[in-house]
Amino acid sequence: MSAPSLTPSTARPPRPPEPRKTPRATSDGSFAKSLRRNLTAHGFLIGAVVCFAVFSWYPMVREFLLAFQRTEGGEVTWVGLDNLVTVFNDPAFWQAWRNTLLFTVLALVLGFAVPFVVAIVINEFQHGKGYLRLLVYLPVMLPPVASVLLFKYLYDPGYGLLNELLGFFGLPEQQWLQDADLSMLSVVLASTWMNMGGAALIYLAALQGIPGELYEAAELDGAGLFRKIWHVTIPQTRLILSLMLLMQVIATMQVFVEPFLLTGGAGPEGSTTTVVYLIYQYAFNFNDYGAAAALGLLLLVLLAGFSAAYVKLSRAEDE
């Protein structure tokens, strides 16, 4: 009987056969569905780009070109800076800028502060916030023409409600829209009432995002109402406040509807003539589209420069 071999076997068990890699099956239906979905998305994107190009970018480029052109008898000629010289030599040019800056300052004093105060007041209510928000936003939902006509009735020197109230308290009646000293203030009051609803809701949304613990800590430190607003509310809403300030400056520098409907545009002694109304006069009253485009280009450059400087200063302050 032979002894068993002590040498271990080096033979390995055979490996199981690897499964064959079959190519991934592509479904024509899923590919077609994906293609249709992408085409639909790109179609909507192309539509938006076309709308911007036709209604925003093309008018801007066209205005830039018109600022250096003159059209007479259907012929377009390049005149260089002649349109800018014409605009600068117009006596109404500087008056329009002064009135626009005055409207901007008054509108910021009222239109920037009043919505913020209204939002703080609404935020303090525990119940009925929805009704108060609707009440504040209601003027924004009204057509601008209807709102302006309402204020024109209020300002009427004969039977206007404001003069009736002044007479009730024994005060002299005022020529709100006929007095050169009061006409711009009257326009600002109407504009503030018409447009403050949107800003108030934005401020209210920002206020509701402030943690209540900050107010509780301020109360424990003995802070009153105004100190809580100054040290808690304003710092927590500084980003929204700065953004709304920039947007309101841009909007108020382009005011047109309120002075045009309340005072006919120019107002007594030209007291409500704004830059945009002067552009309207150049284009539709004087048929000088080159001067209108040149003045519009000046306004665009001024607002773009102000926006760039404001953003740069804001970033520097944050850093």
Lay out the secondary structure.
Blueprint: H1 28-66, E1 69-72, E2 75-78, H2 82-88, H3 91-111, H4 113-124, H5 129-141, H6 144-154, H7 161-168, H8 183-208, H9 212-220, H10 225-236, H11 238-252, H12 257-263, H13 275-285, H14 289-318
Antiparallel strand pairs: 1-2
Helix pairs in contact: 1-14, 2-14, 3-8, 3-11, 4-8, 5-8, 6-12, 8-12, 9-10, 13-14
Keywords: Cell membrane, Membrane, Transmembrane, Transmembrane helix, Transport
Transmembrane segments: 39-58, 101-122, 134-155, 182-206, 237-257, 289-311
Main location: membrane
Concise account of the structure shown:
This protein has helices at about 30-65, 80-90, 90-110, 115-125, 130-140, 145-155, 160-170, 185-210, 210-220, 225-235, 240-250, 255-265, 275-285, 290-319, and strands at about 70, 75-80. By secondary structure, the protein is mostly helical.
